[in-house]
Amino acid sequence: MKNLSISCGSGDILSPDRIRLSQLIKSRYAQPPACYIHTYGCAQNVSDSEKIMHVLSDCGYVFTDKPENADLIVLNTCAVRENAHDRVFGNLGGFKKLKQKNNDLIICVCGCMTQQKQVVDIMEKSYGFVDVVFGTYGAKQLPDMLYEVMKNGKRVVRSFDEGDLISEEMKQLRSDTVRASVPIMYGCNNFCSYCIVPYVRGRERSREVSAVCDEVRELVGNGCKEITLLGQNVNSYSYGFVKLLERINDIEGDFRVRFLSSHPKDAGRELIDAILSLDKVCKHLHLPVQSGNDEILKKMNRHYTVGEYLKIVDYAREKDPSFSFTTDIIVGFPGESYEQFCDTKKLLHRVRFDNIFSYVYSKRSGTKAAQLEDNVSDKEKGMLLRELLEEQRDITEKWLGRFVGKTLTVLPTEKGRTGEGYISGKSDENIIVEFKGGERLINSFVRVKIIKAMNWALLGEIEDK
Ligand code: SF4
Known about the structure:
This protein is an alpha/beta fold. It has four domains: 6-158, Methylthiotransferase, N-terminal domain (Rossmann fold); 176-282, 2-Layer Sandwich (Transcription Regulator spoIIAA), CATH 3.30.750; 307-402, Transcription Regulator spoIIAA; 404-462, CATH 2.40.50.140. 35% of the residues lie in helices and 21% in strands. The protein has 13 helices and 21 strands. It has helices at 16-28, 43-59, 82-101, 117-126, 142-152, 197-201, 209-221, 241-249, 269-277, 294-299, 306-319, 338-351, 378-400; strands at residues 6-7, 13-14, 34-39, 62-63, 72-77, 106-111, 132-134, 156-158, 179-183, 185-186, 205-206, 226-230, 256-260, 284-286, 324-331, 355-360, 407-415, 422-427, 432-436, 446-453, 458-462. It is globular and about 65 Å long. Iron/sulfur cluster binds at residues 188, 190-192, 195, 197-198, 232-233, 263.
């Protein structure tokens, strides 16, 4: 049978399932129905939500930031930390009340949480008012699922499919056109002992270089100034991550490139050389260390030692003494002693990160670490976290001082916190810079001379030409 297809506003061809749903929507609603979408968790989830929004927009939905005005509520969930998990169940309680007032409201829960069988079981048993449940792979099938709910009043649950294929036709509806994320790969092969990601996002799959470059070219052509390449471990990108950076660097236009995240076992000298030599690549590396103690790193299944981590740092600092690093740290890992925690504090001083993202260990069932005795109490974890952050605050304030007197390139994106007339954005080095300037400068690159370092940002003034 010949495929039925029509063109949507973007010039893309609509698939039959999207056409079928959009026709049903037109017959049901006098006005385009509104969707409220709430995203929990990481940049990858934000990117997935943008794909869901693109699919829904093709089918005729518009978007609202008020759940009480919505005809469709989508919760795109995160399974990485327990508090995100609890918040989803908390929010669902509120949405149940909306459904009691409006029986036509459709509620959909998707993402990493619903890729787990035990969560789907809970949804099926105790959350009967949720109409659609799918995991991390189901966005493409959303029009089919919504059709089933609307037309036949059926509840649809579709999780656990292996998502080993990449759907290049899944576009994103981006709310921020100046800063955009571009996934380059999906899934993870690393199985860090505390992490649920490999279980809910499957094994690594890389997008083709040409597909990534085409997307970047299109974004830049539409005025995008900052591209963030996304992957759980971009350094294991199948076609060579440095080669990809070189290809993107060759794309014409006034833009810069960031990437998230790197795994220290796969990041080496070649990556540092690329960061320093490619003019569009931001001069910063986010390199999650997680712990400053080798025994804990082994228990975390991270496959590097503190010494190996420091080799990368030292190489970068040899080439550029002010090279910017940020990192992720977990405190209170099962069995971690205070002495082992102090090794992490020592590492902060040794590396001098510009910023750290620190978390208390959160047990995730299904992971290897969940089998270890979680012997650090919540109270102790909270104290360790505060101690670590205090230590880092001092380091940040002193270490940011290296930029005073220098001129940095900043992309201001919002009003500043410093006072009237200040605007704020990040430098190539990923540091927040505030300076006085008209709002007309927002979303364009500005050369800013740094006059002061604070413990959270730099203060500067527009460079005299
Ligand atoms: S590299 Fe480790 S922490 Fe990162 S997503 Fe993969 S398993 Fe999780």
